[in-house]
Here is the input.
Amino acid sequence: MSLPVPVPPSWKDLGKSSSDLLGRDYPFHAIGLEIKTKTPSNVSFKVAGTRDSKSGVIAGDLEAKYTENKYGTVLTNTWTTSNVLRTQLEVENQLAKGLKLEAHTSLNPDKGINSGLFNLTFKQPGYHARTSLDLFHGNNITSDIVLARNGVLVGAETNYNINDGAITRYATALGYSAPDYAITLHGLSNMRLFSASYYHRVNADVEAGAKAVYNSAASANGMNLEVGTKVYVSLRQCISMSLNPPI
Here is the structure.
């Protein structure tokens, strides 16, 4: 009997384990704070902020999220210290199973800048596709897809300009995902930027990862390498280390 085929990660999450280990877990030159609360009526609040230790600039936001599980709807409103108001509406599994509709709007009253984005996501076992359209500047449609079979992941992304009737950007990816490790290869920026990442969950207490990036368009120093590891000392403490040696 064959095992059920899982839903693969989205295009933006290919290689995410390695990227998080090497990037998110090392907040150099900044101090961050995040507080989350949740009410019995499915409303959650989050306050987050960071202070740059070099410039002293503080950036933060206040987020309120309402979830209606019966109708698969999530409404999120965010107000930032830059006086930007963001609204996000998500509706999932209502029109069809695996179909998710998203609308994102952003307003800056001081500068009079508006933006709107409409996302369409459809995911099934072995298949994950997304399409995005800018509602205010609808000249470009960005689409991506990831296919999976027996741990092998194949993905592609394109940006199509409606006015020119041409593909202006494309990228591809190939990877393999296992329960304790993952390998991902990317060809980005119209196949001019290449990256290879590796993530390994060595055991319950140790994670390791590496990422190499090669820019074929760079005149010098086109190669970059990062390696990192995380060791969990206890349930509440961990030690992380990252190296970025010159090549």
The mean pLDDT is 88. The two ends are 49 Å apart (CA to CA). The first strand starts at residue 30 and ends at 38. The first helix runs from residue 16 to 24.
